[in-house]
Amino acid sequence: MARINLDMDVLRTFVTAQDLGGFNRAAAHLGRSQSAISQQMRKLEDQAGQPVFQREGRGTILTEQGERLLSYARRILELNDETLEAVNGFSVSGSVRFGLPGDFSESWLPTLLGIFKRAHPGVLIEVFVERNGLLFEQLDQGALDFVLAFGGGGRPDALSLGTLPTVWIGPSPDITLPLAPKVPIDLALYGNPCRFRRIGLELLDKAGTPWRLTFTSRSLQGLWAAAGAGLGVTFRTPVGLPNHLSVLPDRPGLPRGPGIEVCLHDGCRPLSPARKEFRDAVMETTREHLRPIRL
């Protein structure tokens, strides 16, 4: 039986359509006509030798074979892109000093950094995990090249990547957390200065909710441990939330928080080729991961 080579361009269109939620959106995103996209999908089914789509109402959904093909298509495209980056990566050299808060260091960014390092082995990456204020100090002093931070702070170098909700976080539902009227809410928060601490306390005070600070930490791991043990609820974004913790549902006494912007900062300094590649990779990956976070 002769081997058939799947068309990479067709696979990329297929994955894009599934990610964006339809062929019309994929056509607009890729700058192609609807008929061109439909022709590519017919070619995909011919190459696969199996039905990939089936009608449902006025639209289409993936068949079981289509779901399996989508999973493989993602892996093929990732390997293709990583291969090309690795082949070209040796032409880029230099160093990148990157600062970020603990929330991101425990989520998707370590994976991104690993992929970037493999694709650009000639680039030395140094990562510093700290709180916003200290990161900005190091950036302004020239000790860091980039900072990923919560809030733009009115800085001229802020590149907005998206907005995250702010939420109250406590133990999993199997641990009872009493929130009785007029009984102070136990809180686990960072020490001052801290944006989340300030916003959370302002929300409670505005709602007339009594509170008491029972746990103060300088590390995110400390807050997660305290919240998981039931020592107090904390106030942050849901990024990097451990499995043993949960976002507390809306209830009297815990007002919903505002959205908070996530920005990448470069200190308004010229970028070397290595730093430009790194900036673009962080911006693209962060935007992709922030987009589906909704509460």
Automatic annotation (TrEMBL):
Name the PANTHER family on file: HTH-TYPE TRANSCRIPTIONAL REGULATOR LRHA-RELATED, TRANSCRIPTIONAL REGULATOR
DNA-binding is among the record's keywords: yes
Entry protein name: LysR substrate-binding domain-containing protein
UniProt record similarity statement: Belongs to the LysR transcriptional regulatory family.
Organism of derivation: Nguyenibacter vanlangensis
The major lineage groups are: Bacteria, Pseudomonadati, Pseudomonadota, Alphaproteobacteria, Acetobacterales
Q: Does the keyword DNA-binding apply?
A: yes
InterPro entries hit by this protein: LTTR, LysR_HTH_N, LysR_subst-bd, WH-like_DNA-bd_sf, WH_DNA-bd_sf
Superkingdom of the organism of origin: Bacteria
* Keyword tags: DNA-binding, Transcription, Transcription regulation
Q: Which Pfam families match?
A: HTH_1, LysR_substrate
Q: Which residues form the HTH lysR-type domain?
A: 6-63
